[in-house]
From TrEMBL, chain A:
Entry-linked SMART domains: AAA, SRP54, SRP54_N
Assembly behavior: Heterodimer of an alpha and a beta chain.
GO biological process: one example: SRP-dependent cotranslational protein targeting to membrane
Cellular-component GO terms for this entry: signal recognition particle receptor complex
The name this protein goes by in its record: Signal recognition particle receptor subunit alpha homolog
Taxonomic lineage of the native organism: Eukaryota, Fungi, Dikarya, Ascomycota, Pezizomycotina
Family to which the UniProt record says this protein belongs: Belongs to the GTP-binding SRP family.
Domain SRP54-type proteins GTP-binding: 608-621
Membrane topology: Peripheral membrane protein
UniProtKB/TrEMBL annotation, chain B:
Biological source species: Sporormia fimetaria CBS 119925
Gene3D superfamilies: P-loop containing nucleotide triphosphate hydrolases
Signal peptide: none
Protein name (Swiss-Prot/TrEMBL): Signal recognition particle receptor subunit beta
Family: Belongs to the SRP receptor beta subunit family.
Localization (cell): Endoplasmic reticulum membrane
Length: 635, 293
């Protein structure tokens, strides 16, 4: 069963919600955080026919949005239950809600919206959809709880009303061949359809309800003349009893009249609306309540079909004159602003933007994703006055870049070291990466930075493979020791020579550091090709044994599209539950303004860039300034 | 007929006919009226005094906003976009600027209205807030909402302190970087310690102390931390030394909120709760708002 359904605005106010089983607010919050803000899970397009899903804590969440009104519709249900009709429910509720409250939602400077009237609409939708999905199998839930024989007489006129709805498709299909029925319902002997219907309503108790359900199922599926003939034959036996009991009931008559009018209306509104109508909706309502519901259903269907037709009609241009004027107006508006953006308007500027970003060395995959997210943001939006589409796109892209590059959590290395050290153990930082990107160089730069802050640093040479790797580190350490005399702090090298297992050396180094009062351990690892399974698999063991507090991956700014694969493979190589904690992008000084690698890597993994290497000296290590990188990329 | 004929429309327009006079009169009288009505309708309403709601995600900004608007907090979720609403000061509170007005005065009623702007508090979406801070037109005050229960532990405190540090630094930069001789308007800051009804919540004075301490730490680690890439990447080899600004008293000694008064900010910490078992308790915050109006 559905647990919760919520309608909320992008600004976070829940406008309307229906809770069947209380669900922690953390579930919806994490959906918003992971999907809408951090975009960790990419929403699939609606074209697939399925709404995107998100799973959390045993719940499955499905959602849809209404961009122009800034609304989100979220349905939450237990992952164990498989609900097929949620997609339809989301669509219908969106159409209903925007249809009913669209105008009120456009009012600015307010969050007030009285949605109390929406509950019956929603209930009705649930009933309809549940009914339609269960029509093949008898559903226990839908049997009214209090239907004894005593009040079956009272209920029957209500049923008569409800009954007409399943019959309507039948009525329609035979309408071509039979003459239009007269509104005169008092003559019981004429074989017009309306009489048939009231005749059918006679059997009072549950049995008939099942029959009806079946019948409606048949009529919905086949809706042939044969079925109608069949039913006619069946019901003819009971026809007399109908009119014996209710012939005098004026109200019942008026009801029938009323519904026959409703039939005509529905005929006009088309087959689509007819399918929405469902027999199970009468449930356990009173006679009066049924009438209300009936109207509600019709109104609902009208709203939904109106919204549907609206969304369809917007796609098609309206004639030659209309399109001509539209084109001129569009050109004008393009300059002056106030134009509502469509996919077609955006196609060309977005193409240009794509090219531009590709030139900046952003990987194609990341470009496509950025452009899609920008397009999703902009379609249906109105440009501000005196802004062109291009400039709107530009600001939007800049925002998207800033969003993707901004780290979610704090990247204060010094504070982290302090926190870890206060628990009495050394802070372990390890560096991984492809061959020749500058792992050792950046490691010593980080060591220098830590020495400046008077830390006692132990550098572990866990690259036991490449000849000269240990010697290289020894040179760095010697230099750093000289420098640390001036700067404070102390540094030492931990090495076990070549050919040993890197993971064991790392673990030993951590133990050594703990014993000798070092408070930071920096572990250098061997460079490895990210698509070599044999080399990458040893990283998992390394992660388990050395237990680094932070694993940084060094990537060079020179690399192009491969950066995405590098970041992904390294992120996945530490086994489940452990990934990279950040990137160091080296050689940033060599690429000028083509700093796209940053975006590609962050896009692939959602992991922030911690450091940038910007030169050959120990001090040439920088933090990331999101604003300036965005400006570089957009320039 | 041509335009220069005896009974053409042009001749009629200049002739001393009654109809011409009537039309001319109508135009002269009606045109200004219509113009006035049109412009009057189009004119933007007078800008209200604005209060910015800042703070980390999940501290209760949107809930406070809905409470101010409809006197009852709505259920809220994580915000992804900013929101501005008009709100009315609750009964019993007098705006500081109209303390001598009588209750029936329309000016008094007008003075009670203010605008609240909610910003998303998630780390990736703070640029809304920061851009608002860079150009705070009509901003009378900043309400920085913190979760009084979550600042009790290290991570929550650090997040709040870092955000608050950035906000205060932005405000200080605005003050010190002002070009006019008059100096920019002062923007007071209220630190609203929300959720103080919870058992684990810290009292306001403790929150003040721990925030001050945490901000000192933030400032210290910023000072010792790495420089940002900005100048290196954009400028070729030119001025690599960028000017840095430190929060309060040049970045020396422990940070305390009173130091901000030098740069036109008074920082106040007050406790309250937007939702709770025995209703909302936001009297102190509204009183603060009333003092700024």
């Amino acid at each position: 069963m559905l647990d919760t359904f919520e309608i909320l605005t992008t600004s976070g106010v829940v406008l309307w919600s229906r809770t069947y089983v209380p669900v922690s607010s953390a579930v919806v919050n994490s959906l918003i955080r992971d999907v809408f803000i951090e975009e960790r899970i990419l929403p699939q397009s609606d074209d697939a026919g399925h709404k995107p899903t998100y799973r959390k804590d045993g719940y499955t969440l499905k959602w849809t949005t209404s961009k122009d009104l800034g609304l989100m519709f979220v349905a939450v249900y237990q992952s164990l239950v498989h609900l097929t009709w949620i997609d339809k429910l989301l669509d219908n509720v969106r159409a209903l809600f925007t249809g009913l409250y669209g105008d009120q939602l456009k009012a600015s400077h307010t969050t007030k919206l009285d949605c109390s009237k929406f509950t019956p609409y929603f209930e009705r939708q649930i009933h309809d959809l549940e009914g339609s999905s269960d029509s093949t199998t008898p559903n226990v839930k839908l049997t009214p709880p209090s239907s004894t024989d005593a009040d079956s007489a009272e209920e029957s006129p209500m049923k008569a009303g409800a009954l007409q709805k399943p019959q309507r498709p039948l009525y329609d299909t035979s309408a071509d061949s039979t003459p239009v029925p007269t509104p005169d319902h008092s003559r019981p002997t004429t074989p017009a359809q309306s009489h048939l219907l009231t005749g059918k309503s006679r059997p009072g108790a549950r049995l008939s309800r099942r029959d009806r359900k079946k019948a409606s199922g048949i009529s919905a599926m086949s809706s042939g003349d044969e079925a109608s003939a069949l039913r006619r034959g069946k019901s003819s036996i009971k026809r007399n009893r109908v009119w014996g009991e209710f012939g005098a009931d004026e109200e019942d008559d008026s009801v029938v009249l009323d519904y026959s009018q409703g039939d005509i209306q529905d005929e006009a509104s088309g087959a689509d609306a007819l399918q929405e109508v469902n027999p199970e909706s009468w449930g356990h309502k009173t006679r009066k309540g049924e009438f209300v519901l009936k109207d509600l259903g019709e109104e609902m269907d009208q709203i939904i079909s109106a919204e549907k037709s609206k969304s369809q009609s917007t796609g098609t241009p309206s004639g030659i004159v209309g399109s001509g004027l539209g084109a001129i107006g569009g050109l004008f508006r393009n300059v002056i602003g106030g134009k509502t953006l469509t996919k077609e308007d955006l196609a060309k500027p977005i193409k240009g933007m794509e090219e531009h970003l590709l030139k900046k060395n952003v990987a194609r995959e990341a470009v496509v994703r950025l452009c899609e997210s920008v397009e999703r943001d902009l379609v249906g939006l109105k440009t501000n006055s005196f802004t062109t589409i291009e400039s709107t796109l530009r600001t939007s892209m800049e925002k998207a870049l800033a969003k993707i590059l901004t780290p979610t959590s704090s990247l204060d290395l010094l504070r982290e070291i302090q926190t870890i050290n206060s628990t009495g153990r050394p802070y372990v930082l390890s560096i991984v990466g492809v061959n020749g990107v500058g792992k050792s160089t950046n490691l010593s730069k980080i060591a220098f930075f830590l020495l400046q802050n008077h830390h006692r640093v132990l550098i572990a040479a866990a690259d036991t493979f490449r000849s000269g790797a240990v010697e290289q580190l020894r040179v760095h350490v010697r230099n750093l020791q000289e420098l640390s005399k001036r700067e404070g702090g102390s540094v030492d090298l931990f090495e076990k020579g070549y050919g040993k297992d890197a993971a064991n050396i790392a673990a030993d180094a951590v133990a050594h550091a703990a014993k000798n009062g070092f408070n930071v351990v920096l572990i250098d690892t061997a460079g490895r090709r990210h698509n070599d399974q044999r080399l990458m698999s040893s990283l998992e063991k390394f992660g388990k044994l050395a237990k680094p507090d932070k694993i940084l991956m060094v990537g060079e700014a020179l690399v192009g599209t491969d950066s995405v694969a590098q970041a992904r493979n390294f992120n996945a190589s530490f086994g489940p539950g452990r990934g990279l904690d950040g990137f160091v992008i080296s050689k940033c000084d060599t690429v000028g303004d083509m700093v796209g690698t940053l975006v590609s890597m962050v896009h692939a993994t959602g992991i922030p860039v911690v450091f940038l290497g910007v030169g050959q000296h120990y001090a040439d290590l920088r933090g990331l300034n999101v604003g300036s990188v965005c400006r570089l990329l957009m320039s | 007929m041509a335009w220069h004929d005896e009974d053409s429309w042009l001749t009629a327009a200049f002739a001393p006919k009654l109809s011409t006079v009537a039309v001319a009169l109508a135009v002269t009288v009606l045109l200004p009226i219509l113009l006035h009505l049109y412009i009057y309708r189009r004119a933007t309403p007078t800008t209200l005094p604005t209060f910015l709601l800042l703070g980390p995600s999940g501290s209760g900004k949107t809930a406070l906003l809905t409470l101010a608007e409809r006197a009852q907090a709505a259920t809220t979720r994580t915000s992804t976009s900013p929101l501005a609403v008009e709100a009315l000061l609750p009964d019993g509170l007098t705006p500081a600027s109209s303390s001598y007005r009588s209750a029936g005065d329309p000016a008094f009623e007008r003075a009670r209205r203010f605008q609240l702007i909610d910003t998303p508090g998630h780390g990736k979406l703070r640029h809304y807030a920061i851009s608002k801070l860079a150009n705070p037109t009509n901003v009378r005050g900043i309400i920085f909402v913190v979760d009084a229960a979550s600042v009790a532990d290290e991570t929550g405190l650090n997040e709040a302190a870092e955000y608050l540090h950035d906000v205060l630094l932005a405000l200080q930069k605005r003050y010190t970087g002002a070009k006019t001789s008059k100096g920019p308007t002062e923007i007071p800051v209220l630190i609203a310690a929300n959720k103080s009804d919870l058992f684990t919540a810290l009292p306001p004075h403790l929150i003040k102390l721990s925030l001050e301490k945490a901000i000192s730490n933030v400032r210290k680690s910023r000072a010792t931390g790495l420089k940002e890439s900005g100048a290196v990447l954009t400028a070729d080899q030119g001025d690599l030394e960028e000017e840095r600004e430190w929060l309060g008293e040049g970045g020396e000694g422990p940070f305390e909120f009173w130091q901000m008064e030098e740069v036109g900010m008074s920082v106040d910490v007050r406790g309250g709760n937007v939702v709770g078992t025995d209703g909302a308790d936001v009297k102190t915050w509204f009183k603060w708002i009333a003092d700024q109006l």
